[in-house]
Amino acid sequence: MTEYTTIRTEQVDRVGVITLHRPEALNALNTQLMTEVLDAVTGYERDPGIGAILITGSEKAFAAGADIKEMQPQTYADTFAGDLFAAWDQLAQARKPTIAAVAGYALGGGCELAMLCDVLLAADTAKFGQPEIKLGVIPGIGGSQRLTRAVGKAKAMEMVLTGRMIGAEEAERAGLVSRVVPAAELLTEAHKVAATIAGMSLPIAMMAKESVNRSFETTLAEGIRFERRIFHATFATADQKEGMAAFIDKRPPEFNHS
Ligand SMILES: CC(C)=CC(=O)SCCNC(=O)CCNC(=O)[C@H](O)C(C)(C)COP(=O)(O)OP(=O)(O)OC[C@H]1O[C@@H](n2cnc3c(N)ncnc32)[C@H](O)[C@@H]1OP(=O)(O)O
């Protein structure tokens, strides 16, 4: 069992949970914390008993951004040679579905971490922003790209150029989050969503995720061709036979993830 110092992990109902835990710094994402998050994600990816990964923070902050105190003294040569933040791409490459449950601040790298996840659920207390410009930098973990795809150019431009935060309702209206729930219900709801996904056939959920993600990277015609081929491939699984047989037999499916 790995000992983590800046995150907490637990496994419930085939869901691998990662709770960011650096309360003294509002979960600011320093190297230690991100290394631990990525290590935990790798562990859950390898674990056949896990079907979805849930990432959450505290009531006050999902994460207040990349660690400014750690970044401040770095030189251009440091950031370039070390390819600062490139490791985070590993989360985007996760093949199992990932869910972010956001309460409080999700700023800069915190907003980017949430956007690296597949499903984004927000508490009514959530505040999203890309305030890097106020620090004399720009988003560096995909914020200018993923935020723009999520909320469109006009809102993304305003947020990235002014650093303005948006609340949960505005984030939902703009399409950044799938749903807003009362803060007291966030974890319960997020667990429900994650457990629902984890209860599906794992290979089929992974195919569904890959297919949706393809829509961000290719033309419509290519995307539809990709989806059709993957759809055909689902018929090679035992879970397709089981899922359809269960419907016909009027019983819940018992997927065995093969
Ligand atoms: C550059 C790239 C690629 C990515 C980035 O993410 S840059 C960072 C973007 N995030 C920000 O600019 C937000 C910074 N934080 C704040 O503006 C405020 O902390 C707040 C509005 C989120 C909350 O304000 P509040 O007054 O409630 O709390 P503080 O006293 O300011 O914070 C408590 C404690 O946490 C430390 N903290 C907060 N955010 C960070 C951070 N991103 N990096 C490092 N440390 C952070 C803050 O300094 C304070 O600790 P001390 O009391 O020890 O100073």
UniProtKB/TrEMBL annotation:
| Similarity comment: family membership | Belongs to the enoyl-CoA hydratase/isomerase family.
Q: Which GO terms describe its molecular function?
A: 3-hydroxyacyl-CoA dehydratase activity
Q: What class of enzyme is it?
A: lyase
UniProt cross-references to SUPFAM superfamilies, sorted A to Z: ClpP/crotonase
Reactions it catalyzes: a 4-saturated-(3S)-3-hydroxyacyl-CoA = a (3E)-enoyl-CoA + H2O; a (3S)-3-hydroxyacyl-CoA = a (2E)-enoyl-CoA + H2O
**What is the superkingdom listed in this entry's lineage?**
Bacteria
Q: What's the Enzyme Commission number for this chain?
A: 4.2.1.17
Organism the protein comes from: Kutzneria albida DSM 43870
Function, as annotated, reads:
Could possibly oxidize fatty acids using specific components.
Pfam families in UniProt: ECH_1 (PF00378)
Keywords of the record, alphabetical order, are: Fatty acid metabolism, Lipid metabolism, Lyase
Cross-referenced InterPro entries: ClpP/crotonase-like_dom_sf, Enoyl-CoA_hyd/isom_CS, Enoyl-CoA_hydra/iso, Enoyl-CoA_hydra_C
Q: What is this protein called?
A: Probable enoyl-CoA hydratase echA8
What's one GO BP annotation on this UniProt entry? fatty acid beta-oxidation
